[in-house]
Structures are given as structure tokens and as C-alpha cells.
Amino acid sequence: MAVVAEKHKTAYDLIAEGAEIKPKATYRSFDESTAEDWAAIITHNQEVPDSSVLELCLDHLERLKSPQPASPVDRYEHSLQTTSRAWRDGHDGDGQYIAAALLHDIGDFFAPHNHGEFCASVLKPYVRPEIYWLVKHHELGQGYHFFHHLGADRNAREKVRAHPYAELCFDFCDKYDQTAFDPDYDTMPLDAFMPSLQRVFERPLRETEPQDD
Ligand SMILES: [Fe+2]
Ligand SMILES: [Fe+2]
Question: What is the predicted pLDDT for the residue at 129?
């Protein structure tokens, strides 16, 4: 009689069949880990909603209120103003564009030289690829409007112009991001955008496996 090898059970198999899940993984290295260990971790992680990611994002947004005496408006006002302009231009949709507009500068403290990448990485599991790309490259797109005052090439963004998502990114920069420094603008409150944010961060759109861009 042919011997059929038993399929190796994964952590997901154990959870699906209602196996008893241990309270804590006990490996000392990943090489030692078992499906039972990973079932414990996955089960616990399911109890931590992704809304906690939104709370962290809102914490970072709050930090943008730090004084910038030389700037026309602080970065918090800039973020809300960018979002207000996009909202009033009809970009509510499924909330992803609004989430991008509101959070696009949250990395300014941790990654002042590549804050677009910072925010894009946070948003990546929750948004469509074009929204991810928009946020990641907005510093380059935005540069058209001021790089020449700093001795840099304002047309540096042309090197990515051929990318299928470039127009969406440049449109965001031209219409909403670079124009959002007006101290007299009628900026909308954060509460107006919370339903959009909650929709976006409700659950990831895709698995967070390492991906190339
Ligand atoms: Fe920015
Ligand atoms: Fe900005």
C-alpha cells in the first residue's frame, strides 16, 4: 500500500481546525520555531486591530504641530490644508487619497531627507499601488515648485515622468501640496477626515510580504 506523506500543518491549519493555541511562543530562534508557535503569535496579533496603526499615524500628525517660526504655517496646518484642498476638489472616494494627503508628511521628524518613503511604507499595505507611489515620490514632484531657490534642479522630477503613476503624483503636488501654506485658507478640521482614515486603516488590502516597488 502506498504511503502518503502527511502534509505539514501550518499555523493557519492549526487555527482553522480549532487546535488548542498555546498562550506564548517558546522558541529562542526562528529556526527553532514551530507551527504551534506561529499559531500563538498570529492569534494574539489578530486581537490587536490595525486601528492602532491609525492611532500611531495620528500621534505623528499631532507632532507636526511643533513650532516652525520661519514657515508661513506649521506642518500640521499644512497637512490639513493639503487634505482640505483635495477634499474640496472631489477626492473623497474610498478615502485612500485623503489618507495620503493627510499623512504624506508624517515622517518629517524621523526621515527629514526621505519622509515620503517613510509615510509610503506605513501606507503600503492599505492603499493601491498608485497612492503608495504618489506618497513615496511627492518630495521629488513637489521640488518643481522650489528646488531652484535652493540651487537644485527643479526639473529633477522629469526623470520619473514616464512612470504610469507620475501624473497622479505631480497633480497632487501641483494642486494641493505646494499650495497648502496659506495662513488665511479656510482649513477643514481633522474630524472631517476621520471616516476616510478609518475606512483605509480598517484592514490591509494585501499581505505585507516583502515586495519590490
Ligand atoms: Fe512632503
Ligand atoms: Fe507637504
Answer: 96
- Domain-located, residue 213: no
Domain total of the chain? 2
Look at residue 116 in the predicted model and tell me its pLDDT.
96
Q: Closest ligand to 116 CA?
A: 1
Q: What is the pLDDT of residues 112-138, one digit of tens each?
A: 899 999 999 999 999 999 999 999 999
CA angle at 143 for the pair 110 and 89, rounded to the nearest 5°? 90
Q: Residues with beta carbon < 5 A to ion ligand 1?
A: 105
**Same domain as 118, residue 16:** no
Burial class (CB in 10 A: 0-12, 13-18, 19+), 139: buried
Where does 64-180 have alpha helices with state H?
Answer: 75-88, 96-103, 115-123, 129-136, 138-142, 166-172
C-alpha span between 97 and 104 (Å, rounded): 10
**Are residues 95 and 30 located together in one domain of the fold?**
no
Q: Are residue 30 and residue 79 in the same domain, yes or no?
A: no
User: Distance, CA 212 to ligand 1 centroid (Å)?
Assistant: 22
Q: To the nearest whole number, what is the mean pLDDT of the chain?
A: 91
* Residue ranges making up the domain that contains 32: 11-46
Starting from the CA of residue 78, give the closest ligand: 2
